[in-house]
Amino acid sequence: MWRVPTSNRSRLGALLSSGWLLAVGFVAVHAWVIAAAIRWGYTIYGDVTLYEWWARHGLQTGQWPVLDYDWVYPALALVPVVLPALLSADVLGYEIVWTAMVVLLDAAATVVLARSTRRGTLAAWWWLAFLVALGPIFVGRLDGVVAPLILVALVVATTRPRLAVAVATVGAWIKIAPGAVVVALAATRRSVRELVDHVVVPGAVVSAAVVGLALLGGAGTRALSVFGQQDSRTLQAESVAATWFSVLRLADPTVRIDYNDVIYTYEVQGAAARQVADALDWLLPLAVLAIGAVTWWSARRRPDHVPDVVLLGAAALLLALIVFNKVGSPQFVAWIGPPLAAAIALAGPSTRRFWWPPAVGVLLTALATQVIYPVAYGPFLGGEPWIVVVAALRNLALVVLLVGAVWRIAQLGLRASAPHAVAASSGT
């Protein structure tokens, strides 16, 4: 087998570890992502335009989401939504400030990642490759705000769990997904005291501050309105659970995907799709509970591998939030990049090999997502066979990644050595 000479590998490693080269790479990647976003225009920035309307309407009329009417996002999402409006005068200015905000947040997260360990720079390069694969959607949604928060929370989870929970809880009050990090950390605490000290207290402090401010602003029960906003939805066209209906279009022209002009998305129509969507409303929380339980069991069996279990648990939970979700927006894939980037930097020597196959798989999944949206979303909605197949394979990949993550968690627990198993069973 042909191998790269050791001297060449050393030079390549030294080159990739250069902070200056990483900075140049960061600028180049984000310049490309922004240029692509500008080229696609409203396709990418449509939601940002809606954010601008919410913010500008609130500033001009005093009527605010959450405070005065129900909203599809948690209360703290008002901060990143309103901030660009305070620094701009029109939609274009808002989009510029919004994009700069996302890039600055990602720059901070990338610096934290690169400085975390000796392998941090390699992980940062992988993260940049992931952003190229995912494409411009990263800067056009709130997920571009929360993905860097997930990344920071996971990087500091082992050494500073209270900070990790605080950062993840802030992210969860912007968009729910970062709460997966909190669940993973809670499941891996060794005692009730640790659970309270590391998870409950910092999470409660952040949540109390957010809910308290919302109540002071007059939100009332609307402070928690986000949890009831998805009930009336059916399957989004590109969601994992919609795959069967999407493929069925190739043989059955009566399967319909129509535009929902209330929530501005395309959904599968029909009684069967509605039944699947209703089932996902309870399957999703059950999946989260099941993964949390497996994560807790594995952490108890392998206290020597708790950092790895945290990363695996967070990855599995974030994947479950996509696979069991009736909403299947392309930007959701931004959630699964952070666990892989953090794992490349932090995984222990005996588990690093676990992460390279899913790292490649996530890059391919992100690339397929970009092909689906924005590149070929029109043909996908029109039922063109090639892109329907690409979407089906992308969704299958998400399921495989989820199953693989859960299996790795269970595998660590099953491989517990006798001393670890005895210690776990005795509660020491």
Using only CA atoms, what is the Rg? 22 Å
* Beta-strand percentage range: under 5%
**Which percent range fits the helix content?**
55-70%
- Report the major sheet: 2 strands, antiparallel
Question: How does the helix and strand content classify structurally?
Answer: mainly alpha
Instruction: Note the total helix count.
Output: 18
What global shape is seen? Answer: globular
Termini gap: 48 Å
Task: Tell me which oligomeric state these chains represent.
Answer: single chain
Strand order of the largest sheet: 1-2
Total strands: 2
- Summarize model confidence as the mean pLDDT: 91
How many domains? Answer: 1
- Following the backbone from N to C, one meets helices and strands in this order, namely HHHHHHHHHHHEEHHHHHHH
* Unreliable stretches covering 5 or more consecutive residues: 418-428
